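One example given next:
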Amino acid sequence: MHRYECGNCNLVSDPFVLRHGAERYGQEHRDKLHHGMHPLSEAILTGSGRMPQAGEWRIVAIFAALVLAGLVSKML
């Protein structure tokens, strides 16, 4: 999980699965509040240390099942 943090505003975003989401959030924040400038104390925090939630595990399980089904169908 990735979060955008702006030390100037004491802002920490909600978690994003992809780093690109946190970077996009940071760019929108800079455009709105800092006129596009990069604050010195901004960062993308990676690995928030929380376990995936139930809904996230379901997505991984469904994806794995689809990949496995595709591989089995190719072998038959």
User: Anything to note?
Assistant: DSSP finds two helices and three strands in the chain. The beta strands are 2-6, 11-12, 42-46. The longest strand covers residues 2-6. The chain has a mean pLDDT of 88.
